[in-house]
């Protein structure tokens, strides 16, 4: 491990905290279904880099913050409730880029049937003039707790 100055160590901690906050704001923007809450697609440009890339475990890829924001309402239209939680991050900062390997828990209700899915969410981040932004998201399928109808999340 190379010796770093106190300033460098503080900057690293501030960067990691900003990335945690950014990821929490992403989860908040895509949560819906209680207290009149809807997906906040308008928040996406402040969370994702303009040229961001989002890839689901099914291989579907969406490119660009505007495209990600545009696809959210349709992609979540069948979801009555969703709560996203990002856990156990391993965040590595390297200058103006960073990686974050997360475990993601999603509790949801579809067709009046509650279910939970546990997945990986591997993200890259980039520092912009406006602060940190998500550059890429790669969702990996993990395990699912099925609802009472045996359906999948």
UniProtKB/TrEMBL annotation:
Stretches assigned to coiled coil: none
Show the InterPro entries listed in the entry: NTF2-like_dom_sf, SnoaL-like
Q: Where in the sequence is the signal peptide annotated? A: none
Q: Which residue intervals define the domain SnoaL-like in the entry? A: 12-136
Per UniProt, what is one Pfam family of this protein? Answer: SnoaL_4
What is the official name of this protein in its record? Nuclear transport factor 2 family protein
**What high-level taxonomic lineage is stated for the organism?**
Bacteria, Bacillati, Actinomycetota, Actinomycetes, Kitasatosporales
């Amino acid at each position: 491990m190379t010796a770093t100055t106190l300033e460098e160590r503080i900057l690293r901690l501030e960067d990691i905290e900003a990335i945690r906050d950014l990821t929490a704001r992403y989860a908040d923007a895509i949560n819906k279904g209680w207290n009149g809450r809807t997906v906040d697609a308008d928040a996406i440009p402040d969370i994702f880099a303009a040229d961001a890339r989002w890839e689901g475990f099914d291989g579907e890829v969406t490119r660009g913050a505007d495209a990600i924001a545009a696809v959210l309402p349709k992609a979540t239209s069948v979801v009555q409730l969703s709560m996203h939680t990002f856990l156990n991050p391993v965040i590595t900062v390297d200058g103006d880029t960073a990686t974050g390997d997360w475990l993601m828990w999603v509790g949801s209700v579809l067709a009046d049937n509650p279910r939970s899915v546990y997945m990986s969410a591997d993200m890259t981040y980039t520092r912009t003039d406006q602060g940190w932004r998500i550059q890429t998201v790669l969702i990996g399928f993990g395990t699912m707790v099925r609802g009472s109808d045996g359906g999948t999340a």
